[in-house]
Specification:
Distance between the termini of chain A: 71 Å
Strand content of chain A: 15-25%
CATH class of the largest domain in chain A: Alpha Beta
CATH superfamily of the largest domain in chain A: Ribonuclease Z/Hydroxyacylglutathione hydrolase-like
Largest sheet of chain A: 8 strands, mixed
Oligomer: homodimer
Number of domains of chain A: 3
Largest interface: A-B, 68 and 68 residues
Shape of chain A: globular
CATH topology of the largest domain in chain A: Metallo-beta-lactamase, Chain A
Helix content of chain A: 25-40%
Number of strands of chain A: 27
């Protein structure tokens, strides 16, 4: 019988920000760690979300035993509804993580068929040849775990997302002891979060925001609105606590905020003292000096609570001079324009707005480890192999360089990318293997359907100079081309300016048709291409534009 | 006769980043300060640049005496070719500023007709009732001036862009004495740059980058490429100087880099020691340990030198392991994705890449004043009225708040926006006046033509779900509609998936036509609208998409 080995197959999140997914396979058994989504770049026109291509998993469907989730952020669970539809295997996760998954699956009508297995930090589960211990780690949301996995060739640790928060809001610290224990036993490979590798020093504790929030709550002459990610249960807890200590009550606005507070509260993971909440329908009449409102919409999402409040278009709350808005979240690159537009609206109504701008004590802290925490983790685990996860290429590269510099990796630092597997063999070697099918699948969330590259290329082309549709008509009895080409356009030139250009363009089409041989006229694809080329040349010369040209031949 | 007064009319740059333009009018005489462009947000599809709407200037063409430029950055001079075409008045600017303007005008064939008037710091010119002294200020480019303008109702100061650099690279400090002198004489109104109002403290001197650049140049085992804005003559000077001091020679790549170095050198504003340059055709063979290359393309512009080098597609230079790239520029929000993609390409070829990431000594510094400099300026000038310029609304608002806090404004802080004038009267009052025509004009740089809002809306719609063109044919002899509707699409569904949907969509069109009364059939616009509505409903229901639907009726 052949020696056992372990394949680690990155299916997402290595070389891109988001859609984290890693498969581990030993013999005929495979597990998948996380199934995240990615929000598309603006250039992916009309695409709502991006998920990993799971062709590799489908090809090896018979081996797949389970999906194991590290925590409940979208970039770790957001692809679950799409992937479970095809690959309905058991799903392991902590209580809060599964509560979030449950809601997603319910929206997609998949909750009844899903097999969800709740685990807790400190527990161990066996899945095929893998024995998985769940280790508690600190992060910006709650109930997060790293995985310590005993495999036939050695122990593998996957950190999930983490920071080392010495003073976590829920009092549950990063499980340094477990990592130390594994470090002593000997770890074959460490797979670890690279998100903040560009940040020197230590990421501040979640508690670091208390000072400033309390100061702002106390100083506020009227209402306070705090906007944070609705999954930031620590932040929500702190807002509730600080509000209580300064004599303010808390209102909730936005569906995800209301839902997540309810979920976390029901699970006993959020302390909400009796009488500390204000019903949303009472917000307008409640004493503004005694009110804090938690609202979703930090990224200025178009229909979010905060976006609507900013333009005074929210049924339940209006803001005016002397009210305060605190944006307790990161301004995610790509969203700046929208966020700053929202902030401008608030300033125009003379609201006091506070957001990350590099001064004073922080009103937001990151949930990911900075360089010094990464170094401590590498020292604790001192693995034989180290694989940076979760990051664009530059971040993986710099995390690899940082690990080299720390010097605690006894074997090798492996710089993998999505789709590029590594095989760990029984004799302690690691080999990079041929790429497997992997990549991005673009999903239109309206239809839940994949959007193909070619369609997006066309949309991009359409978006630049619009579309021009020349139509020629062929008499099906005589085979003759009628001498009345029509041209319709959109997004090209405004109607009044375009008349003359289009009249001339019709002549160009006519000339192309007339100048073609009768053989060419028989082959519609040739005629179409000739029209396209001639029209393109004409339009580019006379308008300097390159619209998408879509010739149509009609037989009537 | 009526009392004199002064109108200040912001035509761009107040409430938006870029396209700076301010008109000053007294009686029948008007001057314009700066004529900048703005780079469009990504959502303005197919628009290359945005310039101010100068309807107000055209309406008052007979009053316009001159355009006065503060410095040569695109957001201050970039609209010149478009505006001079309509309003050919004399243009005042410093030597380097006019050299850059000249190049732009030449590209647009306007150089022969333009009337350019060179001025220098310390000089005074009279334009109608305005007596303008040019005050030297420090910034990230050279030859920058503020304007101190004597008007019939008092002295007005316009700072242009500035920081207070106590150790400028060219040895020409910010003219504190002139500002102090005007402060003593009494200033009616100060108009001032708000760009960096969110930054506490002092902006570091341009010299602050020397330490790190020298360290990196010395440490580099092979070639060094430095990318900076080609207008950053100080930065270019420092790279040339440091290269010399560590025994490296300098190559230049990128058209704007080569052009600007030539212009600045010709004007004696850049010291290039004999023998310190390497010809571009020799870069490949030159000893890499003795080479620094200055390349344009900090923002990863698609055809720029650095973008091409990153993918090893530059004729004159290739990079490999041990080479160094230093991005000595700001990562402008909106460009992150492209810049980081470029950085990833460089890391993939094992190039050592350095970019702004918050650690170590800076490799780039801003050219705009931070809060403490703004406070010093307000104390020096102690104007009666203060008007924040150059910023999005939140920045203008915070600059206004900062001025209130400093307390040196004896009259009033005026928070204006583009299009909202203020009138200063002879008796020392200021009145905000009715808005004038102002706004943004979108320009397609290929055609130099304006792009209308409706066209951009269509492009946006096209970009989301593509276009669907249903075509029905009417027999011009019988007036009958032929029962063969055709539908063509692009950017909608991939061809293979879409066949059935389109077949069914044809039936929908057919049914709409058949179900219409003969009166409806006579009115083509009614038929088109019915087809559009029915098809929209059908497609949205069956594909959850909302393509732009463009019905065509052909008479044959």
């Amino acid at each position: 019988m052949s020696q056992p080995s372990l394949w680690a197959v990155p299916l997402g999140g290595l070389g891109e920000f988001g859609m984290n997914m890693l498969a581990l396979r030993s013999g005929d058994d495979m597990i998948v760690i996380d199934a995240g989504l990615m929000f598309p770049e603006q250039e992916l026109l009309g695409v709502d979300i991006v998920i990993p291509d799971v062709t590799y998993l489908k090809q090896n469907k018979h081996m797949l035993r389970a999906i194991v989730l590290t925590h409940g952020h979208e970039d770790h669970i957001g692809a679950m509804p799409y992937i479970l539809a095809d690959l309905n295997v058991p799903v392991y996760g902590t209580q809060f993580t599964l509560a979030l998954v449950r809601r997603r699956l319910e929206e997609h009508g998949l909750l009844d068929v899903a097999r969800l297995r709740q685990i807790a930090p400190g527990q161990t589960t066996e899945i095929g040849p893998f024995q998985i211990e769940y280790l508690h780690v600190t992060h910006s949301t709650i109930d997060c775990v790293a995985l310590a996995i005993r495999t036939p060739v050695g122990i593998v640790i996957h950190t999930g997302d983490y920071k080392i928060d010495p003073t976590p809001v829920d009092g549950k610290p990063f499980d340094l002891h477990a990592f130390a224990r594994y470090g002593q036993q000997g770890v074959l490979a460490l797979f670890s979060d690279s998100t903040n590798v560009e940040r020197p020093g230590f990421t501040p504790s979640e508690r670091a925001v208390v000072v400033r929030l309390e100061e702002l709550f106390r100083a506020a002459p009227a209402k306070v609105v705090v906007s944070c990610f609705s999954s930031s249960i620590h932040r929500i807890q702190q807002v509730i606590d600080i509000a209580g200590s300064v004599g303010r009550k808390v209102g909730l606005l936005g569906r995800s905020m209301v839902d997540n507070v309810e979920i976390a509260h029901d699970l006993g993971k959020l302390r909400v003292p009796d009488g500390s909440l204000v019903r949303s329908q009472d917000l307008r009449t409640f004493d503004p000096r005694r009110l804090v409102v938690l609202a979703s919409g930090t990224q200025a999402e178009p229909m979010s609570a905060l976006s609507r409040i900013a333009v005074d278009n929210h049924r339940l709350l209006s803001l005016a001079e002397n009210d305060t808005v605190i944006l307790s979240a990161r301004i995610i690159p790509g969203n700046e324009k929208a966020i700053f537009r929202m902030i401008d609206h608030l300033f125009r109504r003379r609201v006091l707005v506070y957001y990350e701008s590099g001064r004073n004590a922080p009103i937001h802290v990151s949930g990911h480890a900075s360089q010094e925490e990464m170094k401590i983790l590498l020292q604790l685990v001192r693995p034989k192999y180290f694989v940076p996860l979760h990051g664009e290429y530059r971040q993986l590269f710099q995390h690899a360089a940082l690990a080299q510099q720390v010097g605690s990796v006894s074997g090798q630092v492996l710089l993998l990318e999505t789709g590029r597997p590594v095989e760990f063999t029984a004799d302690g070697h690691a080999y990079e293997r041929e790429p497997v099918a992997a990549g991005r699948v673009m999903v239109d969330s309206g239809s839940l359907e994949e959007v193909e590259e070619v369609v997006i290329r066309d949309r991009k082309h359409l978006s630049e100079d619009g579309v021009v549709v020349p139509i020629i008509v062929i008499d099906k009895h005589t085979g003759e081309i009628e001498l009345s080409p029509e041209i319709v356009t959109r997004g090209f030139l405004p109607a009044e300016d375009g008349q003359e250009t289009l009249a001339r363009a019709r002549e160009v089409v006519l000339k192309t048709v007339e100048g073609s041989s009768s053989e060419e006229k028989m082959d519609w694809s040739v005629i179409k291409e000739k029209i396209r080329v001639d029209l393109k040349r004409y339009l580019n010369k006379h308008t300097s534009k390159r619209p998408l040209i879509l010739p149509v031949i009609l037989e009537v």
